[in-house]
Design goal:
alpha+beta, GIY-YIG endonuclease, Nucleotidyltransferase, domain 5, 5-stranded mixed sheet, 20 helices, about 45% helix
Length: about 625
């Protein structure tokens, strides 16, 4: 049995991380210390002057562990990783760990590309962002490719330049095909320079050109084309919206301030790049124990930047944070150059803090009550599930799995994750089924679960030695399967072989394909359709199904061109390219007349008739439907 008094005497006078556990062996708090000996002992001294949170936490501690490290910076990183992995009850928790997208111009490559990324590397490329709107980033990259014929392939053009075969984009005029080796590199780089200037906000000719095309199309009554240009304009403007110049020094800064409610805190962060505000985001956090403001901001910064792809030169805060020197050193190591955490007293930076604080208060007023209500409803729903299934612990992390296929073709599996009742999309995973080529959902589910948990066990092995955080290592408290007893037993069989003990339930549907109840331990349980527990399992099941279907649809779309033209007699690679170059889309090819098809370069009447007849049934169904 763990004897706290005896173990306190063994604590070393060295830096490290300490881990507090309760009687269920659950981690309830993680902290760091310059001296483990003095810091951990403080918790078990007189409680007279201790804060409410500390008194509550200490009353639940039955044992503790510690990990010795070399210095404070290592302790900080380890602490942040362990908090992110275990989400202890008494730590301040950042509920949202989303990664924002960036636009990357691959200047480190010959004939650079423009791509979206969520990871910043020291690779010589140029990065723009982060942008809170991923859809605007996607649309803007598409527009850049529509206007500038730059490549989007991943070919290594440093080697074998001129020995590649050009892709379809070259034949339809969307790429200069530098892979052929005959493209003027100076001309190509001029386009890249224009794109960089636009992304820097220094060249608005891209927007002006699209606006002119929209007006011209509208004047010619080509309203469909005009609407496409309008959507392109909106995407580009969304990318640049709020890019208000707020700083004359033109450096990268994040400005962080907070507003406090009764039981919650809203932390607001503004992203300033090259002196312009390019976006903002707010985070709502529980504050049941009325933590010190500096402690909240410190916890936020550590949890936010531990997974961030980009570290700015300056982080401007409204309150002095705890361990600011250590945090600065850690961020500087992560960035590779000096990072400053600044508490402004006057001037431009103080005005920025006041602006961000005002926005934090506005967001708290707007979302605070909704956040608390939602949090309480989620907790009640999880308690209902725990009660009806007689689970030992509250199912704080739930993973749900679903299979999607079309007559067994391109079977895919989805894994969605809900933590404390909220979707955690950063942990979602997709699986393309490898071992099954028939419509066998049982075998497909078995493959998905094996791959998920074997990978998880492998990552846990790595974490035991290096404390590296990875996606599969965090196991759920409850697994939900879209299916009945058969599917559940398949999953239990996989877990049993791997030596894993996790409760598994199936979500069964009625004759109208609506969720009917839960299968657990070979028994069916019913929840009232008005109950919070039912609404939660319905939401989880629908999300797993949606995620699987969206992946399956994306795979079908990728193969559509191949599957719809390659099986037609007389249509080879050259004719396929010629057709796409002429008509620009599959739909237009399907609806073209034989006379229109014959006008395509390389087509004769026999092949045109084959192509026309191939899609005749589909056209009839469309016309009749």
């Amino acid at each position: 049995m763990f004897n706290i008094e005896e173990e306190l005497k063994k604590l070393p006078d060295k830096p490290g991380v300490y881990i507090m556990k309760d009687q269920s062996d659950e981690i309830i708090y993680v902290g760091k210390a310059i001296s483990l000996k003095s810091r951990v002992r403080q918790y078990f001294q007189s409680s007279k002057n201790q804060a409410l949170k500390v008194r509550s936490m200490v009353s639940h501690i039955t044992e503790f562990e510690y990990i010795i490290v070399d210095n404070e910076v290592e302790a900080l990183v380890l602490e942040a990783n362990l908090i992110k992995k275990n989400r202890p009850k008494y730590n301040i928790l950042l509920r949202d760990d989303k990664q924002y997208p960036y636009i990357k111009v691959t200047l480190n490559e010959k004939y650079p590309r423009v791509v979206k990324t969520r990871q910043i590397l020291k690779d010589g490329a140029k990065y723009f962002g982060p942008y809170p709107s991923a859809s605007a980033v996607n649309d803007s990259i598409d527009i850049i490719h529509d206007i500038y014929p730059i490549r989007n392939c991943k070919l290594n053009l440093e080697k074998n330049l001129g020995n590649f075969r050009p892709c379809l984009n070259y034949f339809i005029g969307k790429c200069m095909a530098p892979c052929l080796g005959n493209v003027d590199e100076e001309e190509y780089m001029k386009m890249i320079k224009d794109i960089i200037q636009f992304l820097d906000g220094k060249n608005l000719s891209l927007i002006d050109n699209i606006e002119k095309k929209m007006i011209e199309s509208s004047t010619k009554l080509e309203f469909e084309k005009a609407s496409i240009y309008r959507d392109q304009l909106n995407a580009l403007r969304t990318l640049q919206e709020e890019q208000k110049i707020v700083s004359a020094n033109g450096i990268d800064q994040d400005v962080i301030a907070m507003a406090r409610g009764i039981e919650e805190v809203c932390v607001q962060i503004f992203f300033i790049r090259s002196g312009k505000i390019i976006g903002r985001e707010h985070f709502l956090m529980e504050d049941n124990f009325r933590e010190d403001r500096g402690e909240i901001l410190s916890s936020f910064i550590k949890q936010f930047y531990i997974g961030s792809a980009f570290i700015p030169k300056e982080i401007i805060v409204e309150d002095e944070i705890t361990d600011s020197e250590v945090v600065e050193k850690w961020l500087g190591n992560k960035k590779g150059t000096k990072v400053s955490i600044i508490l402004p007293k006057r001037g431009e930076k103080l005005k920025l803090i006041e602006m961000v604080r005002k926005n934090a208060l506005e967001m708290l007023n707007k979302y605070g009550d909704r956040f608390l209500k939602k949090h309480r409803e989620n907790l009640k729903a999880l308690e209902e599930l725990q009660d009806i299934l007689k689970l030992e612990d509250l199912p704080e992390r739930i993973e749900a799995f679903d299979i999607s296929n079309t007559s067994g073709v391109q079977s895919v599996g989805s894994m969605v994750v809900f933590e404390n009742g909220e979707a955690k999309k950063s942990d979602y995973r997709r699986f393309r089924i490898r071992s099954v080529d028939t419509p066998d959902d049982y075998a497909s589910m078995e493959e998905v679960l094996k791959r998920r948990f074997i990978r998880g066990l492998e990552e846990k092995e790595q974490i035991d030695h290096s404390v590296v955080m990875k996606g599969f290592s965090n196991f759920p408290d409850l697994i939900m399967i879209d299916g009945g007893k058969g599917q559940v037993n398949i999953v239990l069989g996989v877990l049993s072989k791997l030596g894993i003990n996790i409760p598994v339930c199936g979500l069964v549907k009625d004759d109208y394909h609506k969720t009917r109840g839960i299968i657990y331990n070979n028994k069916e349980y019913h929840l009232s359709m008005d109950s919070l527990g039912f609404k939660m399992i319905y939401k989880i099941q629908e999300e797993a199904h949606r995620f699987a279907i969206s992946y399956h649809k994306s795979l079908r779309t990728k193969d559509m061109f191949k599957s719809q033209l390659d099986d037609i007699k007389g249509i080879g690679e050259k004719r396929k390219i010629a057709l796409m170059k002429h008509f620009q889309s599959i739909d237009k090819i399907k609806n073209a007349s034989i006379e229109d098809l014959v006008t395509v370069k390389g087509m004769n009447r026999t092949v045109a008739e084959n192509l026309y007849n191939h899609f005749e049934k589909e056209r009839e169904e469309k016309n009749n439907g």
